[in-house]
Design a protein that fits this description.
It contains 16 helices and six strands. β1, α13 (250-266) and β2 (270-276) form a beta-alpha-beta unit. A six-stranded mixed sheet has the order 3-2-1-4-5-6, with helices on both faces. It is 56% helix and 9% strand.
Length: 398
């Protein structure tokens, strides 16, 4: 079976195919009397191949002597008729990796929600065939057989209707989520994502992560929220508190970071992503229109436990250093600080530091925006913030 899947008619390299197929094999398929594990992989192979070469793939099954031919042809005809009529495969033509992910998403969903019923029906058919062969001699048994046949037929129709309705929903989910991926990262993401991040990409697609991030990113893409009147060589420094208490707002943080990153590229600003807990993690720096989105898939790995008070003063100082050293020769910048109520556990308010920060902000035309994601009842005045926003306010931007 592995050899067959590696021969899939795509333009992918063998190394890329092997990395993708690891995602397929991570979904355990168990043998039964009727369907073997390889049968499930055959169904996936057919869907993926259909996305690659269209209707002509069906003839390869018809001409070959392949087990489960009738069911495979039925599924291919079902997919082929709907997809060719609905999309003409235009959406699927730009990336074999995307075709693989859509096929895998559909296959996993149908396997879980439909194939169990199909297997039950196949077992009934097996019992029916044995009964006919051994017992259909007298009228009583014929009556029993007729009743059984009606039940089996009804079961098939119910399952086919279920397959029909499930497919509509699953395919819409797959399209919505993969389109969200492209709206967030561009349609080249399928080729540029590393093999190491394919599993995380699949996990995000299945959890509908990208649709939610896109929702938040769209909310944040307003001139009111992002515009600060910076010169073309300015820099945004995006400081994100990454202790475990912030993980529940991950999609909001990512939507916000992508909105700021995209805005900075559009206006030829530089962008620095600065995660921190007890110390500052490795920052990500992008120069204007260059961004490696593989970094995106690393962001949720850095959440950790806070073992000591968070040094917010050190974080702001580091952000100032990034602006001072600059990635350019600008004279202005903007700092976003995303945090919660832990800020007030060790709030920086030394007079000398307040004086130095106030003077430097005015001298270099630096704006600090605090995005507060903590308990609203614990929110206090933040002297260094030019703006304090909370998620409820962010969601009101039009």
């Amino acid at each position: 079976m592995e050899e067959l899947l590696l021969k899939n008619p795509s333009s992918l390299s063998a190394e890329r195919k092997e990395a993708l197929l690891k995602l397929l094999y991570s979904e355990q398929c168990t043998d039964s009397i009727i369907l073997k594990s390889d049968d499930f992989y055959l169904f996936f192979h057919d869907i993926w191949s259909l996305f690659e070469i269209g209707e002509k793939y069906e003839s390869e099954i018809v001409d070959g002597d392949i087990r489960l031919k009738e069911w495979r042809i039925f599924i291919l005809e079902f997919f082929s008729a709907r997809n060719l009529d609905k999309l003409n495969f235009e959406y699927l033509t730009n990336s074999s990796v995307k075709k693989f992910f859509i096929a895998l998403y559909i296959w996993k969903k149908i396997k879980r929600e439909y194939f169990l019923d199909m297997r039950k029906t196949l077992k009934i058919e097996k019992f029916n065939n044995e009964f006919v062969k051994e017992q259909a001699d007298n009228q009583v048994n014929k009556d029993i057989y007729h009743e059984m046949h009606l039940k089996i037929q009804n079961n098939w129709y119910l399952n086919l209707f279920k397959f029909n309705s499930i497919y509509d929903r699953i395919f819409e989910e797959a399209l919505e989520e993969t389109k969200a991926v492209e709206l967030l990262f561009g349609d080249t993401i399928w080729e540029t994502i590393s093999n190491e991040n394919l599993k995380k990409l699949l996990s995000y697609i299945e959890s509908r992560h990208f649709s939610e991030v896109l929702f938040w990113k769209t909310k944040f893409q307003t001139e009111q929220f992002l515009e600060v009147g910076l010169d073309p060589n300015s820099t945004y420094v995006f400081c994100v508190q990454k202790d475990i208490s912030m993980k529940r707002s991950l999609t909001l943080q990512k939507g916000l970071a992508l909105a700021v990153s995209e805005f900075s590229q559009k206006h030829e600003h530089n962008f620095v992503f600065l995660p921190f807990i007890n110390a500052i993690d490795q920052e990500m720096i992008t120069h204007k229109d260059t961004t490696d989105y593989n970094y995106y898939f690393e962001l949720d790995k850095s959440f950790g436990l806070k073992t000591e008070p968070i040094n917010y003063k050190g974080v702001i100082n580091y952000a100032f250093t990034m602006l001072k050293l600059e990635l350019s020769h600008s004279s202005s910048g903007k700092i976003y600080l995303i945090c919660n109520e832990l800020l007030f556990d060790d709030f920086p308010n030394e007079e000398d530091w307040i004086s130095a920060v106030t003077h430097y902000k005015k001298l270099k035309n630096i704006e600090i925006v605090v995005i507060y994601m903590g308990d609203k009842t614990k929110l206090q005045q933040i002297w260094f913030a030019d703006k304090i926003l909370i998620p409820q306010q962010l969601a009101q931007f039009k």
